[in-house]
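Fold these two proteins, one after the other.
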Amino acid sequence: NFVSLSTALLLLNKFLYFCASLFRLNQNKKLFLTNTFLLNSTMSAYGKLVVIMAVVMLAISLDKACAGDPDMLQDVCVADLANSLPVNGYLCKKNFSEIDFSSMAIAKAGATNNTFGSVVTGANVMKVPGLNTLGVSMARIDYAPGGINPPHTHPRATEMIFVLEGELDVGFITTSNVLITKHIVKGEVFAFPRGLVHFQQNNGDVPAAVVAGFNSQLPGTQSIATTLFASSPTVPDSVLTKTFQVGTKEIQKIKSRLAPKK
């Protein structure tokens, strides 16, 4: 015998209502114990099975919600970058070729003559349309001597880097404010957990370079400094002065240095 869907939902609803009642009456210990006894003695085997199934289904749904990009539903879905229809990802284009799955975007070193002495060159779905729905992308990061890839996060992906040349001091900060840091050399890899603030710095006298891999077709990057001091519209000075415990002049000075070049 199998419980019908309507019966299963009714039993689950009654169980949840009963739990809510217990919560409201938890100050009455005697009544709480009595209801607990009644629950164990009157709930049918089918009812318990429904509850177990509901918990399992919830666990499965949470696991899917915490995954990276959504699973693909066909062999390929080459991104139609010309289509402006807003969807989570990109629509599939009808005609595609091998060109959509390859790129020379990260073949050469990028120019590092900028404020931070580093440059990130992406090989994501915007450069390789065939990555759409595949849940992967790459990037190349080049560092001048003394250059830094300043503290930032990737809200949609975990990152792993492989050192091509040079040496780096890298690290990330946990949500408990613990710094995990290491000096890495050519041939070494290092992983940065999804969403955590992290950085890389070249403290050597020669250029350095890494290749980064992500478990998202478009991991996104949010720089801590530019997010706070160079957003549009700007974050109010009152928020930043209170946050960093400094005066308005200091905040304005930082904003002027990080403001986008016109």
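Now the second one:
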Amino acid sequence: MSDSLSATADPQLVGIAPDERSIAAWPAVFALGMGVFALVSAEFLPASVLTSIAADLSISVGAAGQTVTVTSLVGVVAAIFTPIVSSRFDRRLVLWALMFLLALSSLTTALANGYAMLLAARFLLGLSLGGFWSMAPALSLRLVPARSVPRALAIISAGVSAAFIGAGPLGAYLDALLGWRMVFVLSAGLAGVALLALLTTMPRLPSQTVPRLETLAVLLARPSVRLMLISVLVTISGQFTGFTYIRPFLEQVPQLGVTAITFVLLGYGFGNVIGNFAGGAVVARGVKLAIVSFALATAVLALAMLLFGSSPIVAGIAVALWGFAFGFAPVGFQSWMVRTAADHAEAASGLLTAAFLVAIASGAVLGGLLVDHVGGWGPIGYMAAATFAGAVLVLVAGKEPPRP
């Protein structure tokens, strides 16, 4: 993470006296990271229990995958409007409310007696996800001194990697052991723990500015920001078309059982953690290099899965390397946005969050159509094409953003 993430770069921080953040509130930062872990785990749990949900509710696998779509679409709106609608409230109160929504969503999912109730539960998750993600990075800047901001953001982002390790393999394993409904009961419990951490550690964070929609127009007028958002939409839609429907692929092509799928997803998660650290080192050499490396490596690995994925060994290795490659993406895109929009960091964070969620939603929609009409290999094929196109786009049109 670059040093351009300073207190003076974010409108939320204007007017904060130095002594107000001279001592880092690390417990609160870790609580934010725990909240992110709970949110991302709940967001992608359907990927590991997709076939079980479909069978229990008598819907197609593609229809079950649209629970990810609903979450993402609602999250887009929440990411943009939550800071505006909640501008008069202490930010810790907003965080508490959003984490409570997560717990309510997971419990409602566990109790769903039909498709409509399931979608309603995921609607609540979208509100929590988009709102929390749009606020957490900016609020972390208010919890620690400026020199500690990169470390604080790294802690919060670590929640994503931890979720990739836990949500996929544990979800698949617990689904076989206890059933998919109990998986979401445990998700609600995790949200409760995160809420307790936020309740006991988060200091008062009164709202200091009223975000404006006009700021988004200013950012979108910048060619570098537009190119970044387009590249997110292309590459991340491919990434999550494949990830959302990876279980059907593993069941149909290499014909893996539940235990084997659990270990494969665990390999993806550990690969992603290592990729996050490696991605930080690559970003230090070049943001463009990190993003192109992620997209091109993912395309090559997807092609390998299509050609040789009938081999369980090849499929397992490819998925682990895929997780490693994706570790480059968040730090790469975040650094790109920060370097090109340091003067409007909070609004830029909202745009980046919205772009990711739109990409995830579109990927889930297309992946659902492909898995229902083509089979488990269809989403992987689209992932190969989309990430290759994204790599070419950034390589040809992208310019290395200025260093801080």
